[in-house]
Amino acid sequence: MLQQQLLNGLVTGSVYALFALGFTLIFGIHHILNLAHGAIFMWGAFVGIYCVTILNLPFPVVLVIAALAAGLLSVAVDWIAFRPLRKAGYSEFSAIVTSIGAGLILTNVAQRVSHTEVMRYPFGTFPIEIYHVLGLRISLLQITIIGSVCVILLALGFLLFATSFGQRIRAIAIDERTASLLGVNPDAVYFQTFFISGALAGVAGVLIGIAFNSVHFLMGEPYMLRAFVIIVLGGLGSVGGAVIAGLALGVVHTLTIAYLSAALSDAIIFSILFLVLLLRPTGLYGTLRLQTRVARV
Amino acid sequence: MTNFLLSHQALLNLCIINAVLALSQYLVLRAGVFSLATAGIAAIGAYTAGNLMLRQAVHPALAVLAAGLLGGIVSIVLAVPLARLRGVFQAIATLAFVQIVMSLALYSDSLTGGATGLNAIPKVVETWHLLAVLAAVVFVLSRLGKSPTGRAFDTIRQDETVAVSLGIDVVPHHRLAFILSGCIAGIGGGLMAGHNYSVATAEFGFHMMIAVLSFVIFGGLVSLAGPIVGALLLTILPEVARPLADNRMIIYGALLIVSIVYLPHGVVDTWLIKHQRRRQAALSAKSGPEAAVKASS
Questions:
Q1: Is ipTM strictly over 0.85?
Q2: What does the domain layout of chain B look like in residue ranges?
Q3: Could you state, in order of their start, the residue ranges of all structural domains in chain A?
Q4: Between helices B127-146 and B9-30, what is the axis angle to 10°?
């Protein structure tokens, strides 16, 4: 029973990781806390379900379309909410406020589009097949989720750490001004990272939507809040940390629901966040020491 | 005039309560603390006052006072970890605090009534009570704002390093702002309990956080009139234009983005700055640059 719950937790956690990765990417590279990320995730799920119910597309195509759409949406959020601030050189707090604004608009439009309904995938969208491995029940859907998350993570790792494109991104992350003097076009990097981050959220949205078979306009909010826990636990801006913390959070979440109480699970998760901020604000991989702590003695 | 006031009394009361909450958020932002805790502390205050009035039959004035006191005590505890963090991390930590409060409120049925909330609280708070509380808060904050402490707040907000080099001790000032803000938020929550007949979790949390933040950002976070004008305008606007009410969140979102980008000082402060410049220009045109220097100092 415990092993089964652990497995379920890892599956949920892998999607959490996918979601949090886009969030932490934007923070690590551009130092922007994008609070509209949850709304972009929700729109990914919306695009996914409309592709299935209206256009009747096969599942892999749906994933790609949702990723593209959410990626472009994320770029649009950057243009509307963050680019004007960059031009004027405002503080990080302004970016938090405008991203809250962008998130509100996206959520409200989704509410109007969906008429405040909870939408479900039609029966048989995804074949229900259950395998028994080592005494554990694992469904085809769970295998697909874990498989696609692994593929995406490997691709992202390759992109960030083994290509010249990744080099440009990391240069911008270290110092935007110096990098642009060395010939990196910051606008292009903003476009690319926001697109990647949105695409990750879009895929996560479709996977979560189909895994819990429920898509509604408020679905982004709880994931957004859990993503906070994940990125703080993993260290803000750390890609590896986000993956590990995402998996851990998925397991903790599933175990508290299974053994304690569903109502308490959020309180426990956020208490963990609070404790981590208090005891080790740099997270598991302490790379951002100067940024988290106050410089005063 | 009296007729108009009577027919819109409910709206007026709402404006005043919102103004009190906005002042709580204003105080922390003015001192350069990126706290979003107001919504959580207001919830604590509301449940405290609601319980005291409903179950212990405590006098409403005492109940509201107790709510403010408890808000202050919670802030004292919360100020300790918060002093170790900066910027975005303070925002995340306080956001986590709000989430912990909300999920505990949902969980502890016996104390808060869970999802149904506390109901049938006697409505004892009249408009003049609210006005008196608002006046008291404005009085305290204006005295504080004109004192050396207020000027220290402004310096810390604009540049913490400069503040430290001027011999301003940042942590005690942050703590003072945060604790006072907690008291005001608790009182605001207590007033809500005595005015709304009921206390429910849906009123607090993320939505209140966004609303209160919009009041301050839209109004302005330096002058005391800023948050009050912001609360007035943003509370009345959706009521005046009925078709807009369904899209209240879109309006808030768009206002957050537009006002940060184009009016970074908020409506009131931008107007004040313009007014001051005009006066200085008039002075210097009349009697040479010396008078202008004198007037500005």
A1: no
A2: 2-264, 269-297
A3: 2-220
A4: 20
